[in-house]
C-alpha cells in the first residue's frame, strides 16, 4: 500500500466549476489546519469577558470531563469522513491510494509512514477520510492516524480532528486502540514526527529515524511486526515534499535552528514554508 501525491494534471482537462470546487476543498483544509485551533482557543477566552461567558464556562467544564477521550479512541464520525469536500481536496493535488498487498483484518497493524511533509495532506485523504475508498480497498480495517498530542488541547479543534479518527501519538492512546477486542485496528504513525517537516525540501526525501524506535516496540508489544508504508513516491516523481518551499536556507540557518530548538513531542513552532499545500501554486 502506498500513497502518491503527484503534481496536478493540466487544468484544461477540468471544467471551471470543478477547478473552483477543488480550490475550495484545498483552501478550507489549509485554513482549518492553520487557524481553527488558535481561533477557538481565543474565542473561548474572549467570551469569558462578555455577556456570553456561560458558553465558555459550560464548554470548559465539559472539556474537563471529556479530557481523556482522545486517549480512549476519541469520537470518530463516518459522516465527517465521507464528506464530498474531501474528494475535492483529493483531486486538487491529486492524491492516490495504491494497494500493493492484502492486509487481512484478522490482526492489528502499526503502519510506519513517511515523509511527514508540512500538513500531511496525503495521510488525511487516505486514512482519515474515505475520499480514496480505504474501507473498500481494505475491508475490515479501521484506520487511525496518530498526531501530536498537543493538538488535543485546543478547544473545539480537538473534537473536529477526533471525528476523523485522529488520536494522540502517545503510548497510552496507542495501547488502548491496539488492545481492543475487535481486530483490524490499523494505526498509522508518521515516524519522523513534526520534526521531520523541517526537512520538507523540494527535490529531497529525508526520513528522521534516529531515536524513533518506539513504533517498533509498540508493534512487537501487540503481537506483530511494524509495516512501512511510504506515502509518497521518490522525489524525482513529485510528491508531498514538492508542495512547499522552506523559508530557511538549510540545516545551518538561524530560523531552522530556532524551529528545531523549540520543537517538542507535544508542541512545535509552526514550520514556515512558501506554497503551503500548494494553496498558492
From TrEMBL:
Superkingdom to which the source organism belongs: Eukaryota
Keyword Lipid biosynthesis: yes
Keywords from the UniProt entry: Acyltransferase, Endoplasmic reticulum, Lipid biosynthesis, Lipid metabolism, Membrane, Transferase, Transmembrane, Transmembrane helix
TM region positions: 39-65
Matches recorded under InterPro entries: DAGAT (IPR007130)
Compartments in which it is found: Endoplasmic reticulum membrane
One term under GO cellular component: endoplasmic reticulum membrane
Membrane topology: Multi-pass membrane protein
GO biological process: lipid metabolic process
Pfam family, one: DAGAT
Extent of Pro residues compositional bias: 225-236
Stretch list, region Disordered: 220-255
The family this protein is said to belong to: Belongs to the diacylglycerol acyltransferase family.
PANTHER family in UniProt: 2-ACYLGLYCEROL O-ACYLTRANSFERASE 3, DIACYLGLYCEROL O-ACYLTRANSFERASE
Protein name per UniProt: Monoacylglycerol O-acyltransferase 3
Organism expressing this protein natively: Gorilla gorilla gorilla
Amino acid at each position: 500500500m502506498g500513497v502518491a501525491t503527484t503534481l496536478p494534471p493540466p487544468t484544461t482537462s477540468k471544467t471551471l466549476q470543478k477547478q473552483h470546487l477543488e480550490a475550495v476543498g484545498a483552501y478550507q483544509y489549509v485554513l482549518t489546519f492553520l487557524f481553527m485551533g488558535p481561533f477557538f482557543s481565543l474565542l473561548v477566552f474572549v467570551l469569558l469577558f462578555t455577556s456570553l461567558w456561560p458558553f465558555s464556562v459550560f464548554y470548559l467544564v465539559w472539556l474537563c470531563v471529556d479530557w481523556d477521550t482522545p486517549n480512549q479512541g476519541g469520537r470518530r464520525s463516518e459522516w465527517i469522513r465521507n464528506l464530498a469536500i474531501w474528494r475535492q481536496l483529493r483531486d486538487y493535488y491529486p492524491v492516490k491510494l495504491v494497494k500493493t498487498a492484502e492486509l487481512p483484518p484478522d490482526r492489528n497493524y502499526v503502519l510506519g509512514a513517511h515523509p511527514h511533509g508540512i500538513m500531511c495532506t496525503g495521510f488525511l485523504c487516505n486514512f482519515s477520510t474515505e475520499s480514496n475508498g480505504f474501507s473498500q480497498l481494505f475491508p475490515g480495517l479501521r484506520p487511525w492516524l496518530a498526531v501530536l498530542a498537543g493538538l488535543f488541547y485546543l478547544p473545539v479543534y480537538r473534537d473536529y480532528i477526533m471525528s476523523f479518527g485522529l488520536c494522540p501519538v502517545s503510548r497510552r492512546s496507542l495501547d488502548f486502540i491496539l488492545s481492543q477486542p475487535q481486530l483490524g485496528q490499523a494505526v498509522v504513525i508518521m515516524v519522523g514526527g513534526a520534526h521531520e517537516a523541517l526537512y520538507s525540501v523540494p527535490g529531497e526525501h529525508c526520513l528522521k529515524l534516529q531515536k524513533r524506535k518506539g513504533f517498533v516496540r509498540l508493534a512487537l508489544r501487540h503481537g506483530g511486526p511494524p509495516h512501512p508504508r511510504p506515502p509518497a513516491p521518490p522525489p524525482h516523481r513529485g510528491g508531498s515534499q514538492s508542495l512547499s518551499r522552506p523559508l530557511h536556507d538549510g540545516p545551518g540557518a538561524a530560523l531552522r535552528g530556532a524551529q528545531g530548538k523549540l520543537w517538542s513531542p507535544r508542541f512545535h513552532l509552526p514550520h514556515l514554508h512558501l506554497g503551503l499545500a500548494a494553496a498558492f501554486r
